[in-house]
Design brief:
heterodimer; A: Aldehyde Oxidoreductase, domain 4; Aldehyde Oxidoreductase, domain 4; 3 domains; seven-stranded mixed sheet; 20 helices; 29 strands; B: alpha+beta; DNA polymerase, domain 1; 2 domains; five-stranded mixed sheet; 7 helices; 5 strands; about 10% strand; binds FE2/S2 (inorganic) cluster; metal ion binding (chain B); 2Fe-2S_ferredoxin-type (chain B); oxidoreductase (chain B)
């Protein structure tokens, strides 16, 4: 497929696939988006680029990628400040309005690689083409660990443009040459020591052309990037003063909750509100799509009324029982269901003629279950609507609320609020649609819809269920052949269908984390099989790689064991990429790797997954105790191109490892009668403090591409844990969660 | 009904069985205390009654009458930090931060009974507080740090 074909047909965009036509010409692609800040400016205020707003009272930096705890606001602000010369302590940060100007260009890289696996000109052209398409479509999405790659140059350039424009304004006012001016801590400084605050210059900026194409500063001069920084939100988040979506209060607001068909997506057939309406504080109970909206004067009163409702429900459009979900995956391993075969090296069939080692692997549905249940405030007026919510997809929300209310998108204002976690959960917006339906029954009144934990967990749009089959062979102590088939439903098709976006073409996520691994096994094939749609699913931290990183490494481990080789040594022998080699060597050094059995009763496992452009290797060490298996240590090395924020890197990687280990140990969502379980943290609890290991982290800077780190630590953790448990106990784990087969302390 | 919250008496008119969590959040506008599970499983709603950590989602309003209720806002403020909050900032514990009010209140209870906790003490006291973001290593370090800070004064 040529780059041009891709433009015409489909854009597969990393974690998000978007279809589009060739509806834009070169003009649209070259023209910058209008600056969305200009419309709302007061007198004597200026918007220098879409990222910097200055008025008499202060400097505001616009950070359009959502922060769900991954430090996105802070890192975006730091990149602007690096060039603008402001102290982070003195500025305000605002997520800005939903706008095409905030398109996410880094989503293009992974998409291009999948379409054109070979590096080179065609891939580069493809990436440029996809990026152009993203720009024209103005896709403002947070996801795919793209915040830093997208922002790294773009936001520094915005800061530099704003700084030079401020200097030009100061030069005009002082009647001196721009070259004689310097900047520091929110001021332009003249040769005679005169200090002009940026805020004082705001009034002069109205007619100033924004200075473009300013060269960026050299890394040696950086004040923020790569240095330990105190996160902007850290005081608020340590004192209970950070306000999240669930904490927002609007004048005259009412409290609502919903009772949705427990079988997700099924219809509401009949209901009786009589008992619930008798309860104190209950105002109205209204049918909405697939359920009931309950409005009260207090969240708990709404919850209590929900529990008192009687309703009967239609069946969901997916199999009611778990066995049928697995059967659908089992049935997908056919020629007809092949979705992609992007790796086919050597001659797999011939090399497996003489008999193969085989194994089958499974990964369950998983909830995102961020600690803050989803919520939204919506007010619908006669000619406008306003939304306050924590979201990764503000522009989709704007469009959906417009569709439901019949308003034009311009009449819908979306305010993005701080989020108590997401992990991909807030790429869905059902809660906003439901709040809108309720608010249309109470025009002019802000309706705050809060899900109960139970409602949130059983309507989570879980991670995909997946199955893999491996055939392989070994010889002379080496891995010779690996044939890996992976079956799952398409996450992208399920997710984008809810945004009315068709997703033609193969889904990169079915094989992500497996087809593009940096190991030169002589005969190697990776095939993606698309299972029929099952339960509605959504992107879960690291998406396809969350299951496939386990499948690939677990299969490789079995072959290495059969070959009688060492898990690290054989990976080092096979590794084909210098960046990946450095990551493996580093993690081996960090752990002092000396084989999988450091001591009796102790075991170590290793895994490396390349995902989101990041090579991440992990070693997990466990010990057998009387109470069960204990995870003692984890070592992590990741190639990130540039460590932008060292503290945040460590925190994100540790969190990603704990996330992945916890889910591999004890989490799964299953369906019975079409209803997801569990519905609270009595199960699916992940790691708790007493189980959390020590985790040592190192970020390597050998590569040229600056990468994000929210997702890449997730895929290698489960297989490294499985390898460690095998080394310690001899039990080979091929299915998550592992607590079905072994006991954890 | 009359409740003492962060040193201030508050008059409220609610059902006896309304969980204290929702009295604080929706009736009194004290939102540092968080709703995570409503079932005693996550610890996000942890507050103190007479200095003892309780799950406010499992505490009836009526049962809190006559006690001193302390929320994260009453423990310390951005201007006057509690030692635990200072340690939480120094170690940059929070990611999303949603669990951290509950974590800090639970840790404050721990330090009040065990001024120099071991790792095992921390495991025992803190394992009921879920952090979906996985900040446990930093929470552990911050508790040890706060214990040192408190012993120095
Ligand atoms: S909200 Fe009370 S323990 Fe979870
Ligand atoms: S910091 Fe997000 S749940 Fe703990």
């Amino acid at each position: 497929m040529s780059a041009r074909d891709i433009t015409r047909r489909v854009f597969l965009v990393g974690s998000v696939a978007v279809a589009g036509g060739a509806a834009f010409g070169i003009h649209a692609a070259l023209r910058p988006h209008d600056n969305p800040l200009v419309a709302g400016l007061g007198p004597d205020a200026a918007a220098l680029t879409p990222y910097v707003k200055i008025d008499g009272s202060g400097v505001t930096l616009i950070t359009p990628r959502a922060d769900s705890g991954q430090g996105a606001y802070h890192v975006q602000a730091a990149l602007i400040a690096e060039e603008l010369d402001v102290d982070l302590a003195d500025i305000a940060v605002d997520p800005g309005p939903p706008d095409a100007a905030y398109w996410n260009g880094a989503l293009a890289a992974e998409a291009a690689e999948f379409v054109v696996p070979a590096a080179g000109m065609v891939r580069n052209a493809t990436e440029a083409t996809v990026a152009t398409a993203l720009k024209v479509m103005g896709l403002q999405i947070t996801g795919g660990s793209t915040t830093v790659p997208d922002a790294f140059d773009k936001l520094r350039a915005a800061g530099a443009s704003a700084r030079e424009t401020l200097k030009a304004a100061a030069a005009a006012r002082l009647g001196v040459d721009t070259e004689t001016l310097t900047t520091e801590a929110g001021h332009v400084i003249a040769p005679d020591g005169t200090r002009l605050a940026y805020t004082d210059l705001a009034a002069d900026l109205a007619d100033m052309p924004v200075v473009q194409n300013v060269p960026l500063r050299a890394p040696e001069t950086w004040r923020y990037i790569g240095k330990d920084m105190q996160r902007l939100d850290i005081v608020a988040k340590s004192t209970g003063t950070q306000s999240y979506g669930i904490d927002a209060i609007m004048p005259g607001m009412v409290h609502a909750t919903v009772l949705m068909n427990p079988a997700q997506g099924g219809a509401l057939e009949a209901f009786d509100t009589a008992e619930a309406m008798k309860l104190r504080g209950v105002q109205i109970i209204v049918p909405i799509t697939g359920g009931l909206g309950i409005v009260a004067d207090n969240t708990w009163r709404a919850f209590r009324a929900r529990d008192a409702l009687v309703a009967s429900w239609g069946a969901p459009d997916f199999p009611q029982d778990m066995a049928d979900h697995w059967a659908a995956l089992d049935a997908a391993f056919t020629e007809d269901a092949i979705d992609s075969r992007k790796r086919d090296d050597g001659d797999v069939e011939a090399s497996l003629d003489a008999g193969a080692i085989t194994a089958e692997y499974r990964a369950p549905y998983l909830a995102h279950a961020p600690l803050e249940p989803v919520n939204a405030i919506v007010r619908v007026d006669a000619d406008a609507a306003e939304v306050w919510t924590g979201t990764q997809i503000p522009r989709f929300i704007q469009r959906n609320v417009a569709r439901i209310t019949g308003l034009s998108p311009d009449a819908v204002t979306v305010h993005v609020l701080a989020m108590g976690g997401s992990f991909g959960h807030r790429l869905e917006d059902e809660v906003v649609k439901q709040a809108t339906e309720i608010a249309m029954q109470m025009r002019g009144t802000p309706v705050k819809l809060t899900y109960s934990r139970e409602e949130d967990m059983i309507h989570d749009y879980p991670r995909q269920i997946a199955m893999a089959r491996m055939r392989g062979s070994v010889g002379d102590g080496r891995v010779e052949a690996l044939d890996l088939g992976i079956a799952m439903p398409s996450v992208m098709a399920s997710q984008m269908a809810r945004q009315n976006q068709p997703v033609p073409g193969p889904d990169s996520q079915i094989v992500a984390g497996a087809w593009e691994q940096p190991f030169a096994i002589p005969h190697q094939r990776v095939t993606g099989y698309r299972a029929r749609p099952l339960a509605p699913i959504s992107s879960w931290r690291s998406v396809g790689a969350s299951s496939n990183g386990f499948f690939y490494n677990a299969a490789l481990d079995e072959l290495i064991h059969a070959a009688g080789a060492d898990p690290l040594e054989e990976r080092l022998r096979l590794v084909s990429d210098p960046l990946a080699r450095a990551v493996l060597e580093t993690v081996g050094d960090m752990a002092g790797w000396d084989g999988p059995n450091p001591a009796p009763g102790r075991g170590r496992g290793i895994a490396l997954t390349r995902s989101f452009g990041v090579h991440c290797a992990e070693i997990v060490e466990v010990s057998g105790t009387e109470a069960g298996i204990r995870i003692d240590n984890v070592w992590v090395a990741a190639e990130v191109g540039r460590v932008v924020d060292p503290v945040n890197l460590e925190n994100q990687v540790q969190g990603g490892v704990i996330w992945a280990l916890g889910h591999a140990m004890n989490c799964e969502i299953t369906y019975a009668g079409g209803i997801a379980r569990p519905d609270n943290y009595y199960a699916h609890e992940g790691l708790r403090m007493r189980q959390a290991p020590k985790i040592a982290v190192r970020g390597l800077e050998n590569g040229t591409r600056v990468t994000g780190i929210g997702e890449p630590p997730v895929p290698p953790a489960a297989p490294a844990l499985a390898g460690a448990i095998f080394a310690a106990t001899g039990t080979r784990l091929r299915e998550m969660p592992f607590n079905k087969f072994v006991t954890f302390a | 009904m009359r409740l003492n919250v962060n040193g201030t008496p508050r008059e409220i008119d609610v059902e006896e069985d309304m969980p204290l969590l929702w009295v604080l959040r929706d009736e009194l506008g004290i939102t540092g205390v968080k709703y995570g599970c409503g079932a005693g499983l996550c610890g996000a709603c942890t507050v103190h009654l007479d200095g003892v950590a309780v799950r406010s989602c499992q505490t009836f309003a009526a049962d809190a009458e006559g006690t001193e209720i302390t929320t994260i806002e009453g423990l310390g403020t951005p201007e006057a930090l509690h030692a635990l909050q200072a340690a939480w900032i120094a170690h940059q514990v929070a990611q999303c931060g949603y669990c951290q009010s509950g974590q800090i209140m639970q840790a404050a209870d721990l330090l009040s009974t065990t001024p120099a906790p071991t790792d095992a003490d921390i495991d025992a006291a803190m394992s009921g507080n879920l952090c979906r973001c996985g900040t446990y290593p930093r929470i552990r370090a911050a508790i040890h740090d706060a214990a040192r800070r408190l012993q120095e004064v």
